[in-house]
Amino acid sequence: MEAPEKIYFTYNDIHRTIKKLAIEILDSGFDVDVIVAIGTGGFIPARMLKTFINRPVLTVGLSYYDLDNKPRDSIEKIQWIDEVEKKLTGKRILLVDEVDDSRYTLEYCLKELLTHKPSEMAVAVLHNKLKNKRGSIPAEITRYFQGADLEDLWICYPWDAQDIELQDKLANQN
Question: Residue of 1, 13, 15, 126 with fewest CB within 10 Å of its CB?
């Protein structure tokens, strides 16, 4: 089996994309009350968005991929928000993840969050893969922000790199 084509990003690439994404969110008029990061991929983008959209960040831990990066049959909820009703009911929530790949994790998380009756929810992803999605965005979610659309390539983020200099070199060859 042939290895998938890869695309590499530097931290500076990510910062520029997050800044553009934050400007789009702010310009849209969506007044965020709380940012919810899907772990582990959404942690760093959510924290970077907080720099531009100064709101609290809450985290949820979901597991969809196994140790070999193969999708499981179902999503496992690892961590959820304490006092969730107090923190989410009636709030405007921005759900953040690094990539919209299969959309399965986003769909699961959005449906879970909707049960806590937020006043409005939006999705922000660093990258949206241009491909057919397994999951869907619930109809109640009318705002979807993506930093960039990408072909269906294996994305190599700097926070996953063991050798950051090599990561930067490979990213600069994109």
Answer: 1
- Counting Cβ atoms within 10 Å, is residue 171 exposed (0-12), middle (13-18) or buried (19+)? buried
Find where tokens 């600069």 sit: 172
Is 60 exceeded by the pLDDT of residue 1? no
Q: How far apart are CA 52 and CA 63, in angstroms?
A: 28
- Which candidate in 13, 97, 101, 168 is catalytic? 101
Q: How far apart are CA 60 and CA 38, in angstroms?
A: 5
Segments in the chain forming alpha helices (H): 11-28, 43-52, 84-88, 104-114, 164-171
Mean pLDDT on 140-144: 97
pTM of the model: 0.88
Is residue 27 among the annotated active site residues? no
Domain 6-171 has CATH 3.40.50.2020: yes
**Which residue ranges make up each domain of the chain?**
6-171
